[in-house]
Amino acid sequence: MFCAVICRDRPGALQIRLDTRAAHLAYIEATGIVRMAGPFIEAGQMVGSLVILECENLAEAQSWAQGDPYRTADLFAAVSVTEWKKVIG
C-alpha cells in the first residue's frame, strides 16, 4: 500500500531543515520505502514535505514518520499520515 506523509514546517525553522537535511536523506535511503519525496515551496522557500511511502500498513508509515530526523529535530508544526491511492503516473 502507499501512504502520504504530509508535513508543514514550523514558521522560521528553515535553518533546522537545512541543518538536518543530510540526516533526513540518509534516513530515506536507509529505510528503503520512500517512492517519491520533496519539499513544499512558498515564496521560493522550503516550508514542508510530501513523502510517498510504499509499506505494509498505516502503522509502518506512522512509524517511519516518527523516526524521520526532520521530525525528531522539531522541524514540523504538523504531520499527517494517510493511506494514498496511486491513480496516475
Sheet-strand content, in percent, reads: 35-45%
Principal-axes geometry comes out as globular
From the structure provided, what is the oligomeric state, counting identical versus distinct chains?
single chain
SSE run: EHEEHHE
Question: Distance between the terminal alpha carbons, to the nearest Å?
Answer: 15 Å
**How many strand elements?**
4
Work out the helix count.
3
Uncertain parts? none
Query: For the report, how would you describe the main beta sheet?
Result: 4 strands, antiparallel
Strand sequence of the main sheet, in spatial order?
Answer: 2-3-1-4
Using only C-alpha atoms, the radius of gyration works out to 13 Å
Summing up helix and strand content along with how strands pair, one would put the structural category as alpha+beta
Mean pLDDT, all residues: 97
Q: Which percent range fits the helix content?
A: 25-40%
Produce the secondary structure layout.
Blueprint: E1 2-9, H1 14-31, E2 34-42, E3 45-54, H2 58-67, H3 69-72, E4 76-84
Antiparallel strand pairs: 1-3, 1-4, 2-3
Provide an overview of this structure:
With 89 residues, this protein is of the alpha+beta class. It contains 3 helices and 4 strands; from the N terminus they run βαββααβ. The protein has helices at 14-31, 58-67, 69-72, and strands spanning 2-9, 34-42, 45-54, 76-84. Strands 2-3-1-4 form a 4-stranded antiparallel beta sheet, covered by helices on one side. The chain is globular. The model has no long low-confidence stretch (mean pLDDT 97).
